[in-house]
Amino acid sequence: MAGTKIKSLYVCSECGYETSKWYGKCPSCGEWNTLNEEVREMSKSTSAAAVQRKKPSSLPVPISQITTEDEQRYYTGLKELDRVLGGGIVKGSLVLLGGDPGIGKSTILLQVCSHLSKILKILYISGEESKRQIKLRAERLGVNSDNLYIMTETDIEVIAEQMQSEAPDLVMVDSIQTMNDRELNSSPGSVTQVRECTNILMRAAKALDIPCIVVGHVNKDGAIAGPKVLEHIVDAVLYFEGDKQMSYRILRAVKNRYGSTNEIGVFQMGDSGLAEVENPSLMLLSGRPKNVSGTCVACTMEGSRPILAEIQGLVTNSGYGNARRMATGVDYNRMAMLLAVLEKRCGYFFSSMDAYVNVIGGLRLDEPATDLALALALVSSLKDMVVPENVVAFGEIGLTGEIRSVSHAALRVTEAARLGFQRCILPYHNQKGLVLPKDCTMELVTVRNIREAVSALGG
Ligand code: TYD
Ligand code: MG
Fold this sequence. Notes:
The protein is α/β, with parallel strands linked by helices. The protein has twelve helices and 23 strands.
């Protein structure tokens, strides 16, 4: 073709780094064996076009004259999803929904269709399943509507054309890794394809003001397969987390241009799809063992919601030279730090002990306020001392063993009281200014350091 030349490029499948030379190790992200060759047609006229003066598509406007009223949202019918989205799907936005295969991404999309197809025209595009498969699943979920259009297509240009001609009110694409731009020579799922297809969808969504939900698979490290750049393009990134073997699913926003990223939504997978769990604490605490050592309940904040979760610790004699440490649901380094603090400041020796920590329900706790419960679970297992089942604990532990105050103490205490807990171990400095509802009958045990916390339990 006149005006074009073919160029061979090497693109990193992890980070999207491009280079004209092959390397064994990506110079940008340091991953090995991730550079793949891609052939690209370069247009010679690009630089000439760039020089040409273009009419600007948008002119500067004083911020005082911009109105926010026209931001229109569609409620999905799933309160937990609406919460994570910051109050429903914003018109013209592009939302990326990530998660492991089989976690329930396609299921939640069909459930959203079930509610929204009553008022909106929805175009559901699948590159993974046949129409029959989708119909079978829809029947199981009780989804049936003349407003829900199913299309099995992988050509992104065709999809963009359909978006224009059909003018749906909402588009769902399952999944971006199966989409393909014919102009590019690389295979579907490659970094360039995924990025370009997302760009095309983004342009279509913005130009036609149609909201679009795109499914993205995650790789073995938990990132959305393909480049991180995908996350920069879209307006919101939601992740579905949770153990596939367990029925709980946690939906978390890692990026949201239209709301907070702290909120989580909790679902339970059942026979008729995903059911919302309005009271996650109750679910996470169900089946808790009674009168055993090595377990303590923590109260963590997920956005504006306090959530109670059970942390279990197991400390046993190490049979080998090196003591083993394993952390599930909490940060490994945080656990190692707490073990060091317990050893140095309280005299509990863990160095010849294996230590395992697990948070029940597949929840991930990354808030420092859960330190105290984690430390108590470990001490409880080490000393074989039971933390009474009506006790809940929260507080951040510093390197000198001090218990530091945390935010939203009143909310945490109130939630624990609502769930029937009677004693709360909390930081001393949180006592000041703690205003609890009148009917809250929680016994508050304030502690200054980890030693006081252990002795409050009789240790
Ligand atoms: P799916 O939505 O296909 O996952 P993804 O699109 O993220 O890959 O979910 C499939 C899993 O959910 C599958 O293991 C079966 C289970 N499932 C139920 O348990 N109940 C249901 O009603 C449905 C539709 C699926
Ligand atoms: Mg699927």
